[in-house]
Amino acid sequence: MNEQRAIARASRTSGIRDLLRQYECGPIQLTGTNNALYERHLMFDNVVDPAVVGPRERFEAIARSVRDILSQRWLHTEQAYQNHNPKRVYYLSMEFLIGRSLANTIMNLMLDQAVRQCVDRNGHDWLALLEQEPDAGLGNGGLGRLAACFLDSMATMQLPAMGYGLRYEYGIFRQSISDGWQHEEADHWLRRPDPWEVARPQEQVEVRLGCSFEVRSGSLAVIPGEPSSLLGIPYDRPVVGYGGRTVNTLRLWAAAAPEVFDFHAFSAGDFVGALAERLTAESLTRVLYPDDSTSRGKGLRFVQEYFLVACSLADLVRRFRRDNSDWHALPGKIAIQLNDTHPSLAVAELMRILLDEAHLGWDEAWDLTRQTLAYTNHTLLPEALEKWPLRWFEVLLPRHLDIILKINHHLLEEVRARYPGDAGRAERISLVEEGGVRRIRMANLAIVGSHSTNGVAAIHSKLLRTKTVKDLADMFPDRFSNKTNGVTPRRWIRLANPALADIITQAIGDGWITDLAEMEKLRPLADDAGFREAIRRAKRDAKSQFADWLKSGSGVAVDPATIFDSQVKRIHEYKRQLLNGLRVVVLYNRLRENPDLEIAPRTFFFAGKAAPAYNLAKLIIKFLNNLAGTIDGDPAVRGRLKVVFLPEYCVSLAERLIPASDVSNQISTAGYEASGTSNMKFMMNGALTLGTRDGATIEMAEAAGEDNFFLFGLTAEQVIGSQGWYDPRWHYDNEPETRAALDLIFSDHFSRYEPGLFGPLRDVLLTHGDHYRHLADLTSYLDADQRLIKLYADQEGWARKVILNIAASGRFSSDRTIAEYASEIWDVRPCPVP
Ligand code: 26V
Question: What is the pTM of this model?
Answer without folding.
Answer: 0.95
